[in-house]
C-alpha cells in the first residue's frame, strides 16, 4: 500500500506554506501570516478554513494572551499537547479546550513512562550554589569554574550513583 506524497513546509519557505499539506510554524510567524501576509494577488495567506487539524505543542503557553488569536481565527479541530495543564482563572487549559477541569483526554503519568514502559529515564535534582551567584564574576566559566571543588565532587558522585541513562538537572 503506497501513501500519498505529503508536502511539508516551515515558514522559512513562506510561499510554499500555503500549498503544503503539513505546515510547521512558531506562534509569532503564524500570527504574522494571518494578520499581515498576503499572496501576490492580495489575498490572505491562510483563510479560517485552511487547516483541518491544528496540533498545539506546549498548549499551556500558546493558547493565551496574544497568541490565542491564532486559535480563534482558524476553524479546525485542535489538539493541545501539554505536560502541565493550567487551571488559573485567566489561563485555563481545560476551559480553552472545553473539557472538565482536571480530566485530560489522555494522561501518561511519569511513573508508568519511567518504571513500567521505560520510555523515559528518571531524573534527579541536585541543588547547588554556583560561581555565577558569587564573586568573582569576571573569570571564564566551565565545569571546574562554575562549581567549587566540593560541589564538583558531589555532582560526580551523584552521576556515578544513578542508573545508566538517567537525567540529572543541576538547579
Number of strands: 6
Query: What's the N-to-C terminus distance?
Result: 50 Å
Largest sheet: 2 strands, parallel
Q: Helix coverage percent of residues?
A: 25-40%
Residue fraction in strands: 5-15%
Q: Count every helix, treating DSSP H or I runs of 4 or more residues as helices.
A: 8
Indicate the overall shape: elongated
The neighbouring-strand order within the major sheet is 1-2
**What Rg do the Cα atoms give?**
23 Å
**Low-confidence runs:** 1-6
The overall pLDDT average reads 74
User: Which structural class fits the helix and strand makeup?
Assistant: alpha/beta
**SSE run:** EHEHEHHEHHEHHE
Verbal overview:
This protein has 171 residues and is of the alpha/beta class. The protein is built from 8 helices and 6 strands. The protein has helices at 14-17, 27-35, 59-62, 68-73, 93-96, 110-116, 143-146, 149-161, and strands at 8-10, 22-24, 53-57, 77-81, 123-126, 167-170. The chain has a two-stranded parallel ribbon with strand order 1-2. It has a two-stranded parallel ribbon with strand order 3-4. A two-stranded parallel ribbon has the order 5-6. α1 (14-17) links the parallel β1 (8-10) and β2. The protein is elongated. It starts with 7 loop residues before the first strand and ends with a strand.
